Amino acid sequence: MNRDSQTFLNVIESNKGIIYKVANTYCRDDDNRKDLIQEIIIQLWLSFTKYDEKYKLSTWMYRIALNVSISFYRKEHTRSRISAPLPDDILHIKDDSSGGSETETDVVLLNKFIKELKEIDRAIIILHLEGNSQQETADILGLTATNVSTRISRIKQQLKQKFINLKTQN
Amino acid sequence: MENISTNTNTNENEFRELWSSYNKKLNESLTLNRKNTEDLTKIRIGSFLASMSPLKIFTILAGIIWSVIGDVIVINLLNTASPFFLISAGIQLVLTQIAIVIYIYQLVIIHRVDINQPVMETQRTLARLRTSTLWVARILFLQLPVWTTFYLSAEMFENGNVMLLSLQIVVTHVFTFAAVWLFTNIKFENRNKKWFRLIFDGKEWTPVMRSMELLEQIGEYGIEKEAEGKGV
Q1: Four-residue CA torsion sign, A141, A146, A149, A155
Q2: Model confidence at B155, in pLDDT bands (50, 70, 90)?
Q3: Could you tell me if B41 and A102 are in contact, meaning their C-beta atoms sit under 8 angstroms apart?
Q4: Which of B4, B19, B206 sits opposite A129 (nearest CB)?
Q5: CA distances from B38 to A24, A46, A134, B82, B231 (A)
Q6: Do A45 and B41 count as a contact with CB atoms less than 8 A apart?
Q7: Closest CB from B12, B43, B217 relative to A118
Q8: Nearest chain B residue to A45, by CA
Q9: Which of B65, B68, B88, B123 sits in a 20 to 30 Å window from A85, CA-based?
Q10: What is the complex's ipTM, to 2 decimals?
């Protein structure tokens, strides 16, 4: 694989969803998310030459996106805004006013509940929901597949409980 | 919430189905600004960790200069200065040098962290890096008493005002007790105590506090991993 900027752009284009979803899971507001997306892309670019092709491209991307997101503290990253003043969003999401269906409401709630989980649990559940196998998730995180499997069940129970509690309240 | 079953034993895939609909919507509405992304690849910028290095290097250099000057003064005054000054300055300099070693350790970690590595491994190193800052705080507190003793002399005890001497003894004792107490109690296990939160309340401590919580989470996974190994 070429390691030039055009190849990199194509990689980012094809996997932009990974960056957006990971950043969204670890950020509370739009400004913060914008900074985090920028930081993830910078780190991906800086690591692009080190990408080891024995791993899937998505494994490499998840590792960097999660590592940056979990250790992202806005105060420490003021330098990125000072020395790299970027104009608008890198990833833009179109406004959709058609929302409001039951499924869309549940998606919003699911995202909200995932954000309430602990950092590592958030990473596990996103990787699971994204369709990664337990072994792939284990490779990305540095856990055992059994460990991942046990955790996924517990996290799903927690999420389900949150839906149940909300339903009971209403 | 009609799509999520309230029966805890029902379809395991319902969250995945929800996530698929989220993915579908994102695929339709998410666009990449290629121009901005390309601009990012042209910016000469270091890793976010490397950006932490300059301040640490500055602190190490300032610490070394302070330490060398202090050592020279102490050595030159070895035969003439009051033992109170020599011992106080000696303790302060040793503690400063320990702090310098911690900063050098942090610098080494910063250059060793590889964000291409698995998340747990990288996060464990990063969290240790941040929490090692607590050691610097502990050492700074340990210096407290010597700032109340370096100006003392034998003459002050022979000819000094009793009231002032009593006050001096009380202050030094209070500072010593506080220093030792803080040194032994500023640790991970006490992070949720009120006094701990009070001392480390500022925004600059947020990463350290969050790192401690992260280390705890990582620790939980370590315990589970061990349990797996033992077939528990």
Answers
A1: negative
A2: confident
A3: no
A4: B19
A5: 22, 13, 34, 65, 50
A6: yes
A7: B217
A8: B41
A9: B123
A10: 0.86
